[in-house]
Amino acid sequence: VRIDLNADLGESFGAWRLGDDEAMLDVVTSANVACGFHAGDPTTLKRTCAQAAARGVVIGAQVGYRDLAGFGRRYLDVAPEDLEADVLYQLGALDAMARAGGSRVRYVKPHGALYNAVVAAEPQAAAVVTAVADYDRSLAVLGLPGSALLAQARVLGLRTVAEAFADRAYTAAGHLVDRRREGAVLTEPDRIARRAVEMATNGSVISVEGTIVAVNAESLCVHGDTAGAVQIARAVRSALTDAGVRIEAFDTG
Amino acid sequence: VRIDLNADLGESFGAWRLGDDEAMLDVVTSANVACGFHAGDPTTLKRTCAQAAARGVVIGAQVGYRDLAGFGRRYLDVAPEDLEADVLYQLGALDAMARAGGSRVRYVKPHGALYNAVVAAEPQAAAVVTAVADYDRSLAVLGLPGSALLAQARVLGLRTVAEAFADRAYTAAGHLVDRRREGAVLTEPDRIARRAVEMATNGSVISVEGTIVAVNAESLCVHGDTAGAVQIARAVRSALTDAGVRIEAFDTG
Amino acid sequence: VRIDLNADLGESFGAWRLGDDEAMLDVVTSANVACGFHAGDPTTLKRTCAQAAARGVVIGAQVGYRDLAGFGRRYLDVAPEDLEADVLYQLGALDAMARAGGSRVRYVKPHGALYNAVVAAEPQAAAVVTAVADYDRSLAVLGLPGSALLAQARVLGLRTVAEAFADRAYTAAGHLVDRRREGAVLTEPDRIARRAVEMATNGSVISVEGTIVAVNAESLCVHGDTAGAVQIARAVRSALTDAGVRIEAFDTG
Amino acid sequence: VRIDLNADLGESFGAWRLGDDEAMLDVVTSANVACGFHAGDPTTLKRTCAQAAARGVVIGAQVGYRDLAGFGRRYLDVAPEDLEADVLYQLGALDAMARAGGSRVRYVKPHGALYNAVVAAEPQAAAVVTAVADYDRSLAVLGLPGSALLAQARVLGLRTVAEAFADRAYTAAGHLVDRRREGAVLTEPDRIARRAVEMATNGSVISVEGTIVAVNAESLCVHGDTAGAVQIARAVRSALTDAGVRIEAFDTG
């Protein structure tokens, strides 16, 4: 049994710090590094990539909408042609940073509102994966199981990686409970860690209705930008190790 | 006798158009394509790179200060570490665009105030060429003869290309006359074309003092963003061809 | 019979020019001046306001989404609280420019995707008009007849001004034909001018179905940023004058 | 004996938090609120202004260069005409926020690299104060004693307020020791507090050479964005109060 741990990193911007990237890099096996459109100035991206490379953490491009003021969390109705170019631009920029650090970008994970949009929006999903395929067909696409994003990526023959969220409540149908509902986001490290183990070892989780739902994921997302994030991530890693789960990055081309 | 013709392209941004890129791509052999920091949205950059590639025009990364409102024409006192990361970011982003169009970035030319800064500012010049070398040692660096930029590029073993300006007045010492002085910028197509031929065939030009000054350049810069720019560029190309000069891109690795 | 003519102005940004503001200011009676979020650098805004003031053209704040790359034409899912602050910020900034030019902002007109959003989106409409009322209750709100924007403005006791488009096709129900449908946007100056006269004198226009539909508008919008825009605007003004229509700004507090 | 305490506030941006504005607002009498160019999104500015107004803290416009990535700390060679418009824009925007909170902008203090530039750069200093005078002649200008900024403000008849820094080392000539020199910035709360009292009561401070130098300041700047900033600010306030100094905002028109 093995699982990948991924987290959003490189999200500082200029004078503004966000998250504890170095601490998180000691926990995760895959780093979703911001690409400058929703967060991440070039110096931060370069340093984060170098730190990831030094620890053998795999680097992914966390592409987002061009919206610094909204941190990429607000839906932006970008034309697919423009979104494709925006993703390609971010991907190339981050790959330059990764290569300067002695590594390279291995996968792409959309951020924030774009992540949510490409769950269902076919044209935006197609734009993202077309940019990925245009850049490098050996890149993987990381996203929500059942999303348009992963479906479109498979159509283009790209490697897809499904992820699950140990700190999010699931419905009996296997969907994430809406963030705005009470209890949608878990905060107790021990409970989150137990769910991570359940997901990694049984491929399942208890839904809010109390049923067991299947969660087939090669990667677990842990958050890096909230209070107590590092502590939770360490609890997840520790519990997985104790349960005999091998924590390592998913295979890429 | 051969010479390269280069021009700044891809400088539109969103709804704002600048210059006639397609017309200029039929004239030049090297395109200094903007990289998004001083100008150029990703869709424009992608299209411009594809158009350049389709015509066999060599693509260069026209890196600049992060200053859209100032079009990169205002000096910005960026720390060398940040400038290095900024250049690397732009270079990778544009290379992704060039590769999507079936080509790749072959050289780097700083834009605007950065171009002027790296004539003398050693730390900024070092930052630019370090980023270039970190990205790809086969890239050439295009700049002003005698500049710190070209000197530092040679120190790192990079290919350097010196350029001259057929539409700018030169002093007897071989420097450009300050833009703000009257007569510093020529506007008559015929006169500019004659100077281009003189530069390409004799390696010289008549200074404002009336003396002959040596101008050793592998490339001539023609402007694309002013009124009558395309007409001037065509006059230059036509005069060079009539004089038996081979117009082709400089060799790169 | 009287009518106001309004146009979007001040939409240049840095090195990028858009439209012929001075020519349009000789035609219109109300200037929707950009506020820097979708277009308009401060120097442009200051100059445009001064030019409008010098001609007695009334100044309105053309507020938009914070999206320079998209020119405010892409829907952005801004939280109402943030939109309210964004509008207030833009309004204050432009009013400073207008006052430096000896005038002041008299009305607010949303731009682009925000204009379209507040036709139906109650929370975004409420955010815009709350910002207007917080700033100055004597300001008018200019928008589409029947829009949530004008309804919400009336709830707050603000002066509302409905506008019509002489260059757009209308359905029998009195709605604008979708821009993407053929024939949705008219381009012949004479035909546009005749429709403007019909709108101003009869309060009606012929729909695409051939029926007569009522168009009650105190202002006609003429476009300033397309090819031939100035010519069309002049034709409209000239035809209105010939028909005995008084062209003057709507009354404000 | 009385003194004003001022601090930079409202410098968060979108998802990025900076400083503890509410805690600082309980300490200072004047808030230099960012205006969106170097920091501060509209929602943050609106909230900070409302919080300042609720506590009776005077609001100043902390205008800066248009450089979010550099937090306004990098010199930008803006043309005076553009700087004047940039300052006017920021001033109007912040005043709208202050007025929505029931207060208004009472003074202007340049930020970061602009603050440093207008110590000596006459054209940039003139641009700033011209914008201030154009907006509202009753506004005060806060800056370094002996600066071009204050000199130019006096020429225009504007109220000037000189400030001192209790946490900065001074030379015998009364200048600030360069930040990059060791010992230039003090960090011990007690020592900083004692210097604040000395400045407020005696109008002097001990220089790095050990001499007593005159420091005539109506306001003391306390920093809000560093570790321990709130603690230092509280120590300063407490020591001043214990020494019988009245802590209140400087008079404005």
Task: Produce a short descriptive summary.
4 copies of one chain form a homotetramer. Helix content of chain A is 39%, strand content 17%.
Instruction: Tell me what portion of residues of chain A adopts beta-strand conformation.
Output: 15-25%
* Largest sheet geometry of chain A: 7 strands, parallel, barrel
Main sheet strand line-up of chain A? 1-2-3-4-5-6-9
State the helicity of chain A in percent bands. Answer: 25-40%
Per DSSP, the total helix count of chain A is: 8
Radius of gyration of chain A: 17 Å
Determine the oligomeric state from the structure. Answer: homotetramer
Rounded mean pLDDT score of chain A: 96
Structural class of chain A: alpha/beta
Determine the N-to-C terminus distance of chain A: 21 Å
Low-confidence stretches of chain A: none
The sequence of SSEs of chain A as H and E is EHEHEHEHHEHEHEEEHE
Number of strands of chain A: 10
Most residues in contact, chain pair and counts: A-B, 24 and 24 residues
**Gross geometry of chain A:** globular
